[in-house]
Amino acid sequence: MTRHDHHPTSAPTQEREQQDDEELVMFLEPDQLVIDKSHPVPRARLTPRANAALWALRVFVLIVSAMVIYTFFAQLGS
Q1: What's the pTM?
Q2: DSSP letters along 2-60, please?
Q3: Are 19 and 8 in contact (CB under 8 A)?
Q4: Mean of the pLDDT values across residues 41-65?
Q5: Per the structure, how many domains does the chain have?
Q6: Is 28 in contact with 35 (CB distance < 8 Å)?
Q7: Which of 6, 13, 41, 60 has the fewest CB atoms within 10 Å, measured from its CB?
Q8: Nearest-angstrom CA–CA distance, 47 and 17
Q9: Are residues 32 and 60 in the same domain?
Q10: How far, in Å, CA of 71 to CA of 76, rounded?
Q11: CA 64 centroid distance within chain
């Protein structure tokens, strides 16, 4: 079990772990740093409500984008 596989800890412990990680990064060669940073982050588990909110936001952005594009071209013609 690695240090990152355990359950959430208190804030001071997490801050110390972050400082330890930053100190270790200083000693890595550039190619080692690239390899260390290239590990994918697992997908976040969202509640159905949060998932629905994100989909609603996507639809909203598409609608507003269409309105902006339409207004831009409508103003070019006048």
Answers
A1: 0.50
A2: -GGGS----HHHHHHHHHHHHHHHHTS-HHHHHHHHTSPPPPPP--HHHHHHHHHHHHH
A3: no
A4: 96
A5: 2
A6: no
A7: 41
A8: 28
A9: no
A10: 9
A11: 23
Please tell me whether residues 32 and 14 are part of one structural domain: yes
CB of 28 within 8 A of CB of 38? Answer: no
Cβ partners under 8 Å of residue 68, min gap 6: none
Q: What letter represents residue 62's amino acid? A: L
Q: How far apart are CA 13 and CA 74, in angstroms?
A: 57
Say which amino acid occupies 43.
R
For tokens 């801050």, what's the residue? 15
Domain residues for the domain of 65 are 43-78
* Alpha-carbon radius of gyration of the chain: 22
Q: What is the mean pLDDT of residues 29-50?
A: 85
